[in-house]
Amino acid sequence: MTAAPFARPFRLIQRNGPALDGAEFPNGRVVLMDDPDWGLCSGARSLDLLLRHGYPDARIEWADTEDGPSHG
């Protein structure tokens, strides 16, 4: 039996603003902690959509790779 894949953590790095933590799920959907103090989050069907519609100037750093692939 093969274990189900887990969510993949990432950090969204903005040009102006704090770094934000998020996760990409095995189905491609993502959630992002926009304001951890208030528990506000954004979600999207894909990381590309999240970046395009909410954070167009941001880049992504993956937690599981030192210089992993970036979006944006």
Quickly describe the structure:
With 72 residues, the protein is mainly beta. It contains 1 helix and 5 strands, in the order E-E-E-E-H-E.
Structure description:
By secondary structure, this protein is mainly β. The chain has one helix and five strands; from the N terminus they run E-E-E-E-H-E. A five-stranded antiparallel β-sheet has the order 4-3-2-1-5.
Task: List the SSEs and their pairings.
Layout: E1 8-13, E2 20-24, E3 30-35, E4 40-44, H1 47-54, E5 59-62
Antiparallel strand pairs: 1-2, 1-5, 2-3, 3-4
- Quaternary organisation of the protein chains: single chain
Strand line-up in the sheet with most strands: 4-3-2-1-5
Beginning-to-end CA distance, first to last residue: 37 Å
Computed over alpha carbons, the radius of gyration is: 12 Å
| Poorly predicted ranges | none
Features:
mainly beta; five-stranded antiparallel beta sheet; 36% strand; globular; 1 helix; 72 residues
